Amino acid sequence: MRRAVLIARAELALMFRSHVALIGVIALLLLSAIAAATSQAHMAQERFSRLANQTQTDALFEAQPARHPHRMVHYGSYVYRPIGPLAGFEPGIDPFSGTTLYLEGHRQNSATISAVRENSSLMRFGQLTPAFVLQTLAPLLLIFLGFSMITREHMRGSLRLLLTTGVTPRDLILGKSLALGLVGLIALAPAWLALLMMAIAEPSEAGAAALMALGYGLYVLIWVFGIVAASALAQSGQAALLSLIGIWCFIAIVAPRGAAELAGRLEPLETRAATDLMIQAELRQLGDSHNPDDPFFAAFKARTLAQYGVTKIEDLPFNFRGAVSAEGEALTSRLFDKYFVELATTQRTQSQIVSLVSIASPAIAVRRISMAGAGTDLETHLRFLQQSEAHRFAMVQYLNRLHRDKLSQADDAARSKDPLAEQRTRIAADNWAKVPDFAFKPTSAKERMLAAIAPILTLAFWLASVMVLAGWSARVLRARAL
To answer: Could you read off the pLDDT of 189-204 as tens digits, one per residue?
Structure first.
């Protein structure tokens, strides 16, 4: 071990005497620090903006004048997906998925307002965040610093000389790995510091932040041992560099995007337009609450009259039109829930396919850890959609109950012809304030930590594999030196 430490010290001294290496390390440190600061500032601003928009939207809804309840059903409201405390480190799918939902009666809308759609298409290649810097740029720096660590000794003829002094190939591999690992640790420092500050600001997130830090530590170690092994196995520095650049392109760029494309091909997702058409077609078969002659609602009318022992809807103790609206909303909501389950199942299957591809790319595995820990993954988005739909249904049904219980059947039927009846169907504005505000309940830190266990094990497998490769490369070095 002592010889390995001496080799590491010598390698570090050589690195930092090189202006190119020193500039590269400083540049990455500055880039990491800038990414951490700007990403956190952007997310803080976005968090404030969404909270302000939600507050304003709720206030506008509650400030509506006296209206017919069904008017308010169609007036609707907006909900905004909140941002978690660790999202500044890893925005995940937030820039790609919609963050705003318009809630209204009889319809389930898609989430809108995503950063990728609102900005340049260059955003699809990644934002400048600590996660992006570590996943994509840090390995590239390590490659340029470490590709010639062993091949340089071989090409100079100093490898055989080192081995004659009692240094073993294992000492050489370990020493070079220690040197490159220290550079990797320096590259990790700004990101780890950012995670520490986020955890201090939100103590409940400390466990998730620690798991994210562990994931990136494993990821950097995978590159460290992989680069040193490649340098030991290559015949020349040029061959090692070209091989490592090709591996970096596949792991950091091709595989993540290819995995998403493969998942889309193997488990295609219906377009929103096609889904809407299927919902409308199925809804027409189930029943149309706006059609007085619809068989389903004709049967509903007969059941209701029989239940209350009357022969006319005018004799019911409530406004039958409101009851029809409530029944129609329950019918459409069950249909929406059915299609949401199908959508969620397809998207989760796609996510599992991408997860399987992480066996071929540790970048995918570390990104899954990062998104799960930060709460910016698919499960958080689906949870937002599910809770938004529950809120939409509760809001609409509350308004339908007002329609049913506070308006007379006669006034409701005559309001389009009788101005006085129309005035009487406008209920007091203070009823709108009784609609509960939307309160998103994200997944707990414990749940997110559990979701990160599988990709952590994938990274551990990768690290074990490259360490075995590094051990085998020591044997190759010994044979080459003989």
So the answer is: 888 988 888 888 888 8
